[in-house]
Amino acid sequence: MFERSRLKTALLAVAAGATVLTAGCAGRGGKTKDTAYVARDVDTLYTAAQQRLNDGRTLQAAALFDEVERQHPYSPWARRAELMSAFSYYVARDYNKAVQSAQRFLSIHPGNKDAPYAYYLIAVCYYEQISDVTRDQKTTQQAKDALTDIIRRYPTTTYATDAKLKLDLVNDHLAGKDMTIGRFYEKSGRWLAATLRFRNVVDNYATTSHAPEALYRLVEGYLSLGTPDEARKAAAVLQRNYPDSVWYARAYKLIAKYQPKELQKS
Question: pLDDT tens digits, residue range 135-158?
């Protein structure tokens, strides 16, 4: 919760900077229904949307920002409203509409100076929907792809710096999913399927917290599959990279139990 509050504040600060206005406070006390179509000048309409956002009425704010774009599509305010609409939907946790609004902005203004912000907002929307490792991880993969895209497109920005931190957490989550499935296969005696999952963690998520256990599980799996040479290789990698890990101690005992002679030679 603390991270989301901090992120929301940061996103709002950037959005405000990207959409700074010189207008007054027109429409501040208006009683017109927010979502009803009423032709209004762009100043009044935008200010009404901003007021709803300030009051925490985020879905109404998003609808009004959308109206700015619809009623005044060729004004400078339309570009600003697209970003503010995306942010308003994000605050309201309507992540699908937030992504759609940000993507629409990028399709119309791909080279705009605020494009990095739009890409980042998309990534954050996916990131905040990451579910428990026992559930489908489609959104987690989308978050990974979006964060990686930011790092590739804007490597020197603060967005990329934060994306790298979030990417580490996303990778740890994806590795955790493979570990959960691998352990399930292992308990079911499906050693080959389990080994493939643990191998994927070692090959693709070696820097995550799950790597030491994955290597140990590979030792278990290879011994059960009757491939002791592969088990020794996994144990050697575990010893080299995590010599003080409890998982290496377990792997050592496991190989000593099943292959004492080979262990003595190594």
Answer: 777 888 999 999 999 999 999 999
Burial tier of 45 (Cβ tally within 10 Å: 0-12, 13-18, 19+): buried
- What the block records as the tokens of 240 is 């080299």
Locate 114 and state its tokens.
């605020």
Placement of tokens 């101690």 in the chain: 249
Residue from 101, 107, 99, 106 nearest 123 by CA: 99
Phi, psi at 124, each rounded to 5°? -65, -35
Q: What is the DSSP string of 37-64?
A: -----HHHHHHHHHHHHHTT-HHHHHHH
Q: Is the separation of the CB atoms in 99 and 122 below 8 Å? A: yes
- Dist. CA 264–CA 128, nearest whole Å: 50
> What is residue 113's three-state secondary structure?
coil
Question: CA-to-CA distance for 179 and 243, rounded, in angstroms?
Answer: 21
Residue 18, helix vs strand vs coil: helix
- The number of helices, as runs of H, and strands, as runs of E, in the chain is 13, 0
Is the Cα dihedral 20, 26, 30, 34 positive or negative?
negative
Instruction: Give the CATH H-level superfamily of domain 1-129.
Output: Tetratricopeptide repeat domain (1.25.40.10)
The Cα–Cα gap between 1 and 194 comes to 35
Band the pLDDT of 49: cuts 50, 70, 90.
confident
Burial class (CB in 10 A: 0-12, 13-18, 19+), 33: exposed
Which tokens is 238 given?
Answer: 């575990």
pTM recorded for the entire structure:
0.74
pLDDT band at 40 (very low <50, low <70, confident <90, very high): low
